[in-house]
Design a protein that fits this description.
Number of domains: 2
Helix content: 25-40%
Number of strands: 14
Radius of gyration: 22 Å
Order of helices and strands: EEHHHEHEHEHEHEHEEHHHEHEHEEHEH
Largest sheet: 7 strands, mixed
CATH class of the largest domain: Alpha Beta
Distance between the termini: 65 Å
Shape: globular
CATH topology of the largest domain: Aspartate Aminotransferase, domain 2
Strand content: 5-15%
Oligomer: single chain
């Protein structure tokens, strides 16, 4: 029986994403029967005819619209590659996106997307705190290119975010530009503050602007299992695939997913900037997608148990988990509407300051002291002196990033062992 390798159902039965990760978009018959896709480690692809080459370039360079059933022909691995196409097809399934594109890093995905969306005299709104590289791009790079940026730190308040969006749109109009995008990181790094995506989308749609700016969401912290931004009004989703999707701390990559018309603009910019990832990294990510749900479910279960035990610990002032017991009723309401789980990265505020935080971190035995998150191993970091070290003291205070804040990314180890490590390290304070 010939099977359609892009089928998403068996008869009337819809297949779940975790099932589709095992074979969607790949025909073993095209690769000598190999059950897994081989690595297409090539720079260029042979055309069957000169006419094929012409057709492929017409579509790739936007010289004509692609026919409904026409596939983008293979040309050159800066544009497309079988490993990337298989990976992108499977990534799009998790979020229900029209299209996915993969990049050489999370920052490559973010930078390429913002370059595709903005032009001189435009304004971009972004929520803070955010990943340090993201804020560097917004605060230092985009303004050099004539794009103004507006940061909003009290973005957990939907009214404040609405006012900021409206003010930024007015600012853009006065500059002779547009509000090019509203960029949201939720939960925020490292405080786990949530932003109401539906409220943000409604604020954008209410603007008096010919073309509504896209709502762009960095969904790295919760990943495609625990939050579905497109279901809540987002237009584009960004990921550091280095984190949960890659999940083994052995690669760097990023992704953008979303609406077809916007993705075409991002694809054009990726082709010209050359920010695409390589075939081997794409192959590793395709492998990792097969176990994504298992790893994220185990990590989240471990984190939930650690949160339960750390809350009320004599050396811990507060536990910052998404929509958790110590968050406000408004934050808990957003979590209930928007999130399917709290994920496995959270922060703790210790009783003390930097000295106490460093003593605790230096006493850890199983948790590794490293930035990043979402790997199979558990990690601990001190945001104030590392990932957010370029924040001014005022910005740190405004965003709640104190010297006593420690961020934990919980892996898939035995949870009793992980708690024993945290407990003995807290005892060193």
């Amino acid at each position: 029986m010939t099977r359609d390798h892009r089928a998403r159902s068996l008869g009337a039965h819809a297949l779940a994403p975790e099932t589709l990760m095992m074979g969607y978009g790949y025909d073993p018959a095209l690769s000598e029967g190999s059950i897994k896709p081989p690595i297409f480690q090539t720079s260029t692809f042979v055309f069957r005819s000169a006419e094929d080459g012409k057709r492929f370039f017409e579509v790739a360079y936007g010289l004509r619209e692609k026919d409904p059933e026409e596939a983008l022909g293979l040309i050159y691995s800066r544009i497309n590659n079988p490993n990337l196409e298989i990976l992108e097809d499977r990534l799009a399934i998790w979020d229900g996106a029209d299209k996915a594109l993969v990049f050489s890093s999370g920052m490559a995905a973010i930078s390429t997307t913002l370059l595709a969306l903005s032009r001189p005299n435009d304004v971009v709104v972004y929520t803070a705190p955010a990943y340090g590289g993201t804020e560097y791009l917004f605060d230092r790079i985009l303004p050099r290119m004539g794009v103004a940026t507006v940061s909003v730190s009290d973005c957990g308040d939907a009214e404040v975010l609405d006012q900021t969006i409206r003010a930024a749109a007015a600012q853009a109009k006065a500059r002779g530009g547009r509000l090019a995008a509203v960029y949201v990181e939720t939960p925020a790094n490292p405080t786990n503050q949530l932003i109401d995506l539906r409220a943000a989308a409604d604020s954008i749609r209410a603007l008096d602007q010919a073309e509504a700016p896209p709502l762009v969401v960095d969904n790295t912290f919760l990943g495609p299992l625990w939050q579905k931004p497109l279901d809540h009004g987002a237009d584009l989703i960004l990921y550091s695939l280095t984190k949960y999707v890659g999940g083994h701390s052995d690669l760097i990559a990023g992704a953008c997913l979303g609406r077809a018309d916007l993705m075409a603009r991002v694809a054009e910019m990726r082709t010209i900037c050359g920010t695409i990832t390589d075939p081997h990294t794409a192959w590793l990510l395709t492998r990792s997608l097969e176990t994504l749900h298992i790893r994220m479910e185990r990590s989240q279960a471990n984190a939930a148990e650690l949160v339960r035990r750390l809350r009320g610990h004599p050396k811990v002032e507060a536990v910052l988990d998404a929509g958790g017991a110590e968050s406000s009723p408004a934050q808990q309401a957003v979590f209930a509407r928007q999130c399917l789980g709290a994920g496995s990265t959270f922060s703790i505020r210790l009783k003390g300051g930097e000295a106490e935080a460093f003593r605790m971190l230096n006493a850890l035995g199983l948790f590794k002291l490293a930035v990043s998150l979402g790997g199979t191993e558990s990690l601990a970091s001190h945001p104030s002196s590392t990932t957010h070290s370029d924040y001014s003291p005022e910005a740190k205070a405004r965003c709640g990033i104190g010297d006593n804040l420690v961020r934990l990314s919980v892996g898939i180890e035995n949870v009793e062992d992980l708690y024993a490590d945290l407990d003995q390290a807290l005892g060193a304070i």
